[in-house]
Specification:
- The protein is built from 24 helices and 14 strands.
- By secondary structure, it is an alpha/beta fold.
- It has four domains: about 80 residues, Hemocyanin, N-terminal domain (Up-down Bundle), CATH 1.20.1370.30; about 150 residues, Rossmann fold, CATH 3.40.50; about 180 residues, Rossmann fold (3-Layer(aba) Sandwich), CATH 3.40.50.720; about 90 residues, Rossmann fold.
- Strands 8-7-6-9-10-11-14 form a seven-stranded mixed beta sheet, sandwiched between helices. A five-stranded parallel beta sheet has the order 1-3-2-4-5, with helices on both faces.
- The protein starts with 6 loop residues before the first helix and ends in a 6-residue tail after the last helix.
- The protein binds nicotinamide-adenine-dinucleotide.
């Protein structure tokens, strides 16, 4: 299995099993004397780990413990995450990863991932040779400028690609040695970080304009040359840059932007599922967004495609989608709109949010503002007055930024709201009835899309792939979930969900000529066989 011996074996997180090395393995690898007598199983190690996690006082401490375990014993780390996904996803990803990014320079121990800064210009391809693994299939890249709802965290944003790739492995079985987290460290405009002596990043103001886009270009070209089969996931870029990069590369390179397209698919899936409760077919629904940034606009863009698929013209589709931002209803007369807002700027008089609900009468309200509490009692009551079952999505993360809490949505609507959120909320009992809020977590979508894309060796990812992923996810919401008002399936089913999404996405790629790899006879089995299993 390995030529390594003694401590080299115990220090290699890929092969290390620690106490689970058998007597024979201890003999073979020269481990006698280096481990205590007891030989344990992975299950026993997991029991010990979960107990140690329980003893920690905060989630950030749990994050640090798990991060160290990921370096020390990768398989135990993934076993723990897979078997306890509901409990540990919020620790290795949002909301705790936000805190981890804020404190990244303080809690830093071992380097994970790949850092590129402006001094690497002209040499990115060369320095990529330093990365030991050569068969990279998924790259998650950020420049740290818009980390979750937390703003510019510079190179501290590296926690995001690391966390997302851990979810790729846990949720879709992409092998960890095929994953590459990348920080394009182009500086930061965050003064606090620039003045912090512990700050780990390139200590300059952000590279901007042409020089910035040239560096990204060089990076994309270099990874295409080194890892031609890799999927590139853009993550947490500032909205205008996110759109520029996505539009530049989406038809040329195997890539997508999770904040825009992943969020869109997971939300559309929830909207599809909500029809089963409201009885209003998707094509007849009218949707209002609070917030008109990359998340909300990405959702609307995918919904246009979805409406068109249902036979509506583009014009009819656009008419079903309305936006309100910090300055009120997005209408054609406004001079403060960005390019991505323009298709949704309808001819209408300017209105406040509450007046817009009253006049436009949406069935579904989607909050993506980053502004906690934006859905007030008045907002929920207005939605309830015009809908038998109002559908409310409070997508902003972390929990403190959610547009309203699950409890408020149910209480202010007299138990009628169908509620889903970006951050997890517990079940709520209101008037003797149990309501289960669904979590519109991007992790339902991106791992499956990625798995399908790399398995079929797709050349690009079409909008249709996101529609298919949304529909496949919605189909996995059971009648029991719907009965409790939940728009998403239970998270512990995530590997089966990802496998089904991967199969559907890959099947579509074969049908549309986007797949470069010959189709295996049994596609689903072939994808399942490819999935990394962390059992020893
Ligand atoms: P963004 O900065 O691009 O856009 C924010 C938008 O909200 C802007 O249009 C702004 O005008 C508007 N806004 C801010 N405060 C407002 C207020 N009080 N009233 C009305 N409008 C207001 O950000 P983004 O990338 O679009 O992300 C927005 C939020 O969506 C973030 O908090 C993020 O956590 C969340 N999000 C959730 C998911 C998910 O749950 N699956 C995925 C992606 C993003």
């Amino acid at each position: 299995m390995t030529k390594k011996r003694n401590f080299e074996v115990l220090q290699d997180g890929v092969i290390n099993k620690s106490l689970a090395f058998s007597r024979e393995e201890r003999e073979e690898f020269g481990l006698r004397g280096l481990l205590p007598y007891s030989v344990g199983t992975q299950e026993l190690q997991l029991t010990r780990l979960m107990e140690n996690l329980r003893r920690k006082e905060s989630d950030i401490e749990r994050y640090v413990l798990l991060s160290a375990l990921q370096d020390r014993n990768e398989r135990l780390f993934y076993r723990a995450v897979i078997d306890n996904i509901e409990q540990l996803m919020p620790v290795i990803y949002t909301p705790t990863v936000g805190e981890a990014c804020r404190e990244f320079s303080q809690i830093f121990r071992e380097s994970k991932g790949f850092y590129i800064n402006p001094e690497d210009k002209g040499q990115i391809s060369q320095i990529l040779d330093n990365w030991p693994k050569k068969d990279i299939r998924v790259i998650v890249v950020t420049d740290g400028q818009r980390i979750l709802g937390l703003g510019d965290l510079g190179s501290n944003g590296m926690g995001i690609p690391i966390g997302k790739l851990a979810l790729y492995c846990a949720c879709a079985g992409i092998s960890p040695d095929q994953c590459l987290p990348v920080m394009l460290d182009v500086g930061t405009n965050n003064e606090e970080l620039l003045n912090d002596i512990l700050y780990l990043g390139y200590p300059h103001k952000r590279l901007e304009g042409e020089a910035y886009f040239e560096l990204v270009d060089e990076f994309i070209e270099a990874v295409q040359e080194k890892y031609p089969k890799a999927l590139i996931q853009f993550e947490d870029f500032l909205t205008p840059n996110a759109y520029t990069l996505l539009n530049k590369y989406r038809n040329k390179v195997l890539c997508f932007n999770d904040d825009i397209q992943g969020t869109a698919a997971v939300t559309l899936s929830g909207v599809y599922a909500s029809s089963r409760i409201t009885g209003t077919p998707f094509k007849d629904s009218k949707i209002m967004f609070l917030g008109a940034g990359s998340a909300a606009t990405g959702i609307a863009d995918l919904m246009v495609t979805a409406y068109e698929k249902e036979g509506l013209s583009k014009e009819e589709a656009l008419k079903r989608l309305w936006f309100v931002d910090i300055n009120g209803l997005v209408v054609s007369g406004r001079d403060d709109l960005m390019a991505h807002n323009l298709p949704y700027a309808h001819d209408h008089q300017p209105l406040t949010f509450v007046d817009a609900i009253e006049e436009i009468k949406p069935n579904i309200l989607i909050g993506a503002t980053g502004f906690g509490g934006a859905f007030t009692r008045e907002v929920i009551e207005k939605m309830t007055a015009i809908n038998e079952r109002p559908v409310i999505f409070a997508l902003s993360n972390p929990t403190s930024r959610a547009e309203c809490t699950a409890h408020h949505a149910y209480a202010w609507s007299n138990g009628k709201a169908i509620f889903a959120s970006g951050s997890p909320f517990n079940k709520v009992t209101y008037s003797g009835r149990v309501h289960k809020p669904g979590q519109g977590n991007n992790a339902y979508i991106f791992p499956g899309i990625g798995l399908g894309a790399i398995h079929a060796e797709m050349s690009t990812i079409s909008d249709e792939a996101f529609l298919i992923a949304a529909q496949t996810l919605a189909n996995q919401v059971s009648d029991e979930d719907i009965e409790l008002g939940s728009l998403y399936p239970p998270l512990p089913n995530i590997r089966e969900i990802s496998l089904n999404i991967a199969e559907a996405v890959a099947e579509n790629a074969y049908a549309t000529g986007l797949a470069k790899r010959p189709r295996p006879e049994n596609l689903k089995q072939s994808i399942a066989d490819y999935m990394f299993d962390p059992t020893y």
